[in-house]
Amino acid sequence: MSESNNRLLALDTFRGATIMLMILVNNPGTWSHIYAPFRHAKWHGCTLTDLVFPFFLLIMGVAMRFTFEKYEICNKYGPLFKKVFVRTITIFILGLILNAFPFVRQDWDWSSLRILGVLQRIALVYLLASIIVIKRDIKAIIKVSISLLFGYWLVLYTFGIINGIDPYALNSNLVLYVDKIILGDSHLWSGNGIPFDPEGLLSTIPAVVTTVIGFLVGTMIKTASDQRDNCQKMAILGSVFIIIGWIWGLLFPINKALWTSSYVLFTAGIGILVLSIMIWLVDIKKNNKWAKPLIIYGTNSIFIFVISGIWTKVLLNISFNLNGKMISGYSYLYQTIFMPLDGGMNSSLLFALFHIVIFWLILALMYKKRIFIKV
After folding, report:
1. β-sheet bridge partners, residue 327
2. Cis link prior to 102 (omega < 30° from 0)?
3. What are phi and psi for residue 326, nearest 5 degrees?
4. Shortest CA distance to 284 belongs to which of 235, 239, 211, 240?
5. Distance from the Cα of residue 35 to its chain's centroid
6. 3-class DSSP state of 47
7. Are 103 and 313 spatial neighbours (Cβ–Cβ below 8 Å)?
8. What backbone torsions phi and psi does residue 346 show, to the nearest 5 degrees?
9. How far apart are CA 259 and CA 253, in angstroms?
10. Percent of the chain with pLDDT over 90
11. What's the rounded Cα separation, in Å, for the pair 202 and 115?
12. ∠ at Cα 314 (49, 355), nearest 5°?
């Protein structure tokens, strides 16, 4: 947003940088050769990669403050709730379709379809955050957010105490228990060695607060008469959140998979700090030539998430013969073009950077033709 409160170019820049980082960490040449910042924390902790999802939810919250305003000004809450509901259903179904793709395989079993996922969490968070912020004043929103963060900590801790287990361990937490009861083991992600979904139902509750914080930050930006002063306030707020989140993490570990309350504040604080810097550079100082590629990357965020997911699944489900051995198209592309360049982490990184460039070219063409796919 410029000083005249027209459009927040920094938000588009931040969104684009987040999507670009997502493509980078989701598409290494091989998962056995990845630089540490581009891996998720094994359990407790937070890496650069662990910032991607909360940043996106924070951005969604900021954007909600701007998009909801036209309905609030006219008191047209009926159309707003309809918009929220339709968008929720659409994004959730897209997530299910992406999980099921390519739909027909010899070993396909619908009874093992993963129900949850990134898009499904975005959909549920969008719905619940909208319910919290629509027609409520700032004080009420803050009270609800604080209650959710402390309530989530309380229920996880109490569950562990009652059952005499570590409430924050991979195989003994309430998030896992709730998902097993409601969804069943066969419908959960098993990438951690056991059925456990990092986008679980119960852990969606604190994720909602990440988006609500974004909405409150969007309110700060929208109502500020002096964006320079507001940037300073945002930087202070972000720093305070980081400190509180880190301290809370000593008792309630910072953990993305559980989306702990400490993780909410810690990552939101970093996101607010980054956004304040981008507003200062892009919208206030008008130093935005470097931002144009990122803005392009942020214009069709849901579209590129879906397309990148489909592309990867297509590569993984086609086979090529390499030296008498059948391997996936994904491995074939990496081993024949990128692996000979270095054979280690640099080759794996170049493979990911290649995907960033290819998807950027697609988005740049869409941007040039003014094609914006809104979900």
Report:
1. 320
2. yes
3. -80, 125
4. 235
5. 20
6. coil
7. no
8. -65, -40
9. 10
10. 77
11. 14
12. 45
The residue type at 15: R
**Contact between residue 275 and residue 220 where contact means Cβ atoms under 8 Å apart:** no
299, 319, 309, 269: which is closest to 366 by C-alpha?
299
Where do we find the tokens 């989140």? Answer: 245
For residue range 87-111, list pLDDT tens digits in order: 999 999 999 999 988 875 555 667 8
- Please state the rounded mean pLDDT for residues 21-36: 92
C-alpha distances (whole Å) from 202 to each of 41, 244, 344 are 20, 23, 39
Residue 42 corresponds to which tokens in the numbers above? 């094994």
pTM of the model: 0.93
Q: Which two tokens stand for residue 349?
A: 């990184």
**Secondary structure (DSSP) of 296-353:** HHTTTHHHHHHHHHHHHHHHHTSEEEETTEEEEHHHHHIIIIIGGG-SSHHHHHHHHH
Q: Cα angle at 337 between 333 and 339, to 5 degrees? A: 95
- In terms of Cα–Cα distance, which of 26, 13, 4, 3 is closest to 356? 26
In eight-state DSSP terms, residue 37 is G
Name the 3-class secondary structure at 255.
Answer: strand
pLDDT digits (tens, 9 = 90+) for 198-242: 999 999 999 999 999 999 999 999 998 899 999 999 999 999 999
